[in-house]
Amino acid sequence: MSDEPLSVGMLGYRFMGKAHSNALQRLPMFFPEAPDVELDVLIGRDEEAVAEAAARFGFSRTSTDWEDVVDEVDVFYNLGPNNVHADPSIAALENGASVFCEKPLAHTLEDAERMRDAARDAEGTAGIAFNYRFIPAVQYARSLIESGELGEIHHVRGVYLQDWLADPSAPWSWRNSKEVAGSGALGDLGAHTLDLSRFLVGEQVGDFTRLSGHLQTFVDERPVPGGDGGTLSGSGEESTETREVTVDDAYTAQAEFESGAIATFEASRFATGRKNGHSIEINGSEGSLRFSIERLNELEYLGPDDRGFQTILVTDEDDPYVDRWWPAGHIIGWEHTFVHENYEFLRAVAAGEEHTPSFEEGYRVQELLEAIERADESGEWVDVP
Fold first, then answer.
1. CA distance 42 to 211
2. Which positions ≥6 away from 236 have C-beta within 8 Å?
3. Which residues of the chain fall short of a pLDDT of 50?
4. Cβ distance 192 to 159 under 8 Å?
5. In sequence order, which residues have a C-beta less than 8 Å from that of residue 19 and are 6 or more positions away?
6. Which domains are seen in the chain, by residue range?
7. Among 215, 267, 313, 338, which has the minimal tally of Cβ within 10 Å of its Cβ?
8. SS (H, E, C) 220-258
9. Do 368 and 211 contact (CB within 8 A), yes or no?
């Protein structure tokens, strides 16, 4: 690997573009051994908006077409809508770049398979952005499970609840389109929980063997935002133009692992009062633990000799990543998970190594999403490939 900085091209400049750009800016201060990066080109369709974002994020130039620049960068970040994950990522890999893609891997299993296969054949490193793996409390939980502190794993419960669509008048977006997103709460939120369960207990219980699934859409159409809807220009009247919602608003699933352990999963974008309520609980023969993103620095743990759960504040210097930030007891936040995952990905790029979670792992989660949809359609349990 050259001593020159890694040139970064980033497709997408809104929510995830801001999160990853912020992480890349933080790396030199808190992870000085991280590879140097050059924020080269920011890519988006709206020329004026992407130029404004590039100025804020620190990118040197912009482009409105990924095809014009995909062969000019060392590392390609694909943070666009799910239906544009496959082609730009595959093109970047074929041009020798490393690729970091937001989850879910794609909007269809077929595209996810194409991406997985391209990564297998590529010289560069490919990674998928499951940032919750890189929370210190989650890493600590994994160490407890791997060391046998929970004994034989019996139950996994994963829940991800938000409420940003609970209002029927909330505007339509690409996340409401199956053609663009692939699925709704299932892929947007459930992908995180499914991956986290595999990350935490996969070594102990094996992989999933069968799944059930139920998907529900509560609002079938939503108002079109901006110039295509909302308030009619100059009239002060509300537009009646709407667009169909073609994905789920909520899902539930049951699952069985190879060991015989069982799991339940749930996600909703209609959980009134919940802004980002992601939690996972694991019960074993010797103990249990529970983690919630709403209390990101804490882990609830019950050991074999405990009479009740104890709350562990995972902020000591010897806890994962904590020594890079503040003195013990000084908490970190959601944004820091992106710093951690970008550090690990770029370290793997510089070393010419595979990053985990990889496109292979992203494909495995995509198989689970597809299996849950098939179970919902059939009304029966389905075997997992």
1. 40
2. none
3. 1, 227-237
4. no
5. 335, 338
6. 6-131 (3.40.50.720), 136-295+297-332 (3.30.360.10)
7. 313
8. CEEECCHHHCCECCCCCCECCCEEECCCCCEEEEEEEEC
9. yes
Structure tokens of 213? 């699934």
Q: Can you give the pLDDT at residue 287?
A: 97
> How does pLDDT run across 311-339, given as a tens digit for each residue?
999 999 999 999 999 999 999 999 999 99
- Give the pair of three-digit tokens for residue 116: 């997985």
**pLDDT given for residue 78 in this prediction:** 98
In one-letter notation, the amino acid at residue 50 is V
Give whole-number Cα distances, 243 to 194, 222, 321, in Å.
30, 5, 44
Residue 333: its pLDDT value, please?
Answer: 97
Per the document, the length of the chain is 385
3-state secondary structure at position 281: strand
Per-residue pLDDT at 233: 35
Residue labelled with tokens 């970091």: 100
Residue with tokens 């890694």: 6
The pLDDT value given to residue 170: 96
Spatial distance between the Cα atoms of 295 and 139, rounded to a whole number of angstroms: 15
Report which residue type is found at 60: S
The β-bridge partners of 280 are: 158, 291
Contacts of 29 (CB under 8 A, 6+ apart): none
75-78: strand order across its sheet: 61-63, 37-43, 6-11, 75-78, 98-102, 126-129
d(CA 217, CA 177): 12
Written as six digits, the tokens of 193 are: 């929980």
- Looking at residue 239, its pLDDT comes to 57
